[in-house]
Adenine deaminase
Amino acid sequence: MKSQLPQVNQTLIQVALGEKPADLVLKQGTLVNVITGELNKNIDVAISGNRIAYVGHADHTIGPETEVIDLEGKYLAPGLMDGHMHVESTMLTVTEFARMALTKGTTSIFMDPHEMANVFGKEGVRHMHEEGRKLPLHVFTTFPSCVPATADFEDAGAKITVEDVEEGLTWGGVVGLGEMMNFPGVVNRDPLMLGVINATLHAGKTVTGHFPDGTDQMLQAYLTSGANSCHETITREKALEKLRLGMHLMIREGSAWHDVKELAKVITIDKVNTDQIMLVTDDIYPQTLVEKGQVNHVVRRAIEEGIDPVTAIKLASINTARYFKLADDYGSISPRKVADIIILDQLELVEPTMVIADGKIVAQDGKLIVDLPTYEYPDHVKDSVHVKRAIKPSDFIVKAKSSTDRVTANVKEVIENSARTKRTQFELVVEADQTIVSDLDQDVIKLACLDRHHKSGDISVAFAHGFKLKKGAVASTVAHDSHNLLVMGTNDDDMAFAANYLVELGGGMVVVENGKVLAEVPLPVAGLMSDQRAETVVKQVNQLDQAWQDIGCQIHAPFMTFSLIALPVIPDIRISNRGLVDVTKFKFIPVIE
C-alpha cells in the first residue's frame, strides 16, 4: 500500500529539520524546476519512504544508514507522466508495459482501458486496473466512457453503463472519465453520455475529452458539458481555438500519428501560456516503446521542435498532475511530493540513467532493477474470439443490385500517419454474374468487419484504398474500438483463410498469402494483448511489418492504421460489423451507389 501524506508527514517534518535521517539523498544535481521554469544548480534531494522531505543543501538529513548518490551536476527532473494512453495499443499487459516504460522515465500513466472494456466491459477494466495497482509504476485509470464508442453503429463485446462508471469512480486510483469520444452524443444531449459525465463531475473527478472536428458551436457545447481536454487536435489553428476557450490541449505523438511538429508552433510561434498543455502518447506500438521510448520520446520531439527543455518536461509532469487534480502529490520535485525522479546526463536527449519511482530506485542505465509481481488473467479472458461458423470465401462476395458492367463504390481511403480517413469513390467492374471485383490497378481492395463477440454471423463487406496490397490478405482482432474481426485482402480465399486462422489462434494479427501464414502476432489476452515479453512481441511485430511490405504495403505502421478503420467516431468514413458509416453525417451509407 502506497503511503499517503497524513501517514508520513510527521516523519517528513523530522527529516526536513534534521531530527531523523533520510533514506536516500541525491547530491549535487541540477534541478529541473517545472514550477518556476528554472534550472537550479547544486541541489540535493532528501527522500524518506516514498516522499521528498527536503530540497536544497541536505547534509543535515544524512545519517549512518542513509544511501547517498552524488549526481555530479546531472539533471534531476520529475518523473514523466503520460496524461492519455491505451496500454492495449502496446500489445503488452500492464505489467510488461511497466517493465519497459519505467526504464524510459515514465513514472505515472493515466490509462483509458476502453479497448479491454469493449471486449469484457467493467470486468476487463477491473483486471487491468488491479494489475496496475500492484506495480511501482503509478497506474491511474480513467474509467471508459463510450463502450461501444457509438451504440447506433457497431456491436462491441460489452457495454458500459452509468452505474458501471459510478462504481468504477469509487475504486482507488480511478481519477476520472476516459475520453468522451461520442461528441455528437454529448452535443445532442444523449442521456447515457451526459449520465457518465455527470457521474464523474459529481465525484469531483476529471472528464477527459475527444473532439476531432466540428463547428465552433459544437465545440463550445461540448465544453459546457464538462469534458475539457482533447488529444485529437492536429492543426495549429484548432489548437489555438481550443486553448482560447479554456480547453486543455493534449499534444499527441503516437506511433502512427505525429502531431508535435505542427502543434508545437502554438508555443514556439504563438507564445501561448503553457499551463493547459500536455504531452501524451495515446497509442504506441511496442517497437516505439522499446526503440524510441514512451512519453520521454514525446518530450524529446517537443524539444526538437524548439520547445525549451524545461517547458517540455513541464508539459509531461506538473501540467498533467494538475489536470487530474493530483498536483499536491505528484508532478514536481518539491517537499512532500511522492519521490518520482529521473536522472538525466543530457537534458535534451531525455534518456534517464536512473529512475526513482515511489521513492525507490527502479531502473538504472536503461535496465529495470526491481522485480515486478505477476498477474494472471482468467481463462475466459484468453478465449474471446467467437464467430457463428467457419468463414467462407463466398462471405466476401459483393454483388450489384442490377445488371450493369460498372458501378460506383463508396471507398474508404486511409491516410498515412493519421487516424482519419477520406470518403472517396471509384468505378469498379461488374462480372457477368453481377459480382463486383476489386481493382488492384486502382488500389481498391475488399475490406470486411465480422462480429467476433456474439456469434451473430454479422459480416459487412466494403472496399478500401491506400494500402496498396498486391497479393494476399491481412486480419486483426485489434479493431478500435469494438474490436471485431477485421479482414482485408486481394482475394476472397486468402481473406477467409486469414479470418479462420485468427479465430483458431484466439486473436491477434496475421498476414497470409496463398493460404500460408507469412507472419503473426498472437494476442491471447482479450484478442488485444500478448502474454509474452516485450522483446518477443517486438520481434513478432517487426516480422508482421515486413510481411505487410512483402504483399505490397509500403505505408508506415500499416497494422495500426488498419486497426483504426472500424472506429466510427473519427471522420470521414468507417466500417463496422453493421455496415459502412459516414462519420461526418453519422449515418450508414451504401457500399454501392
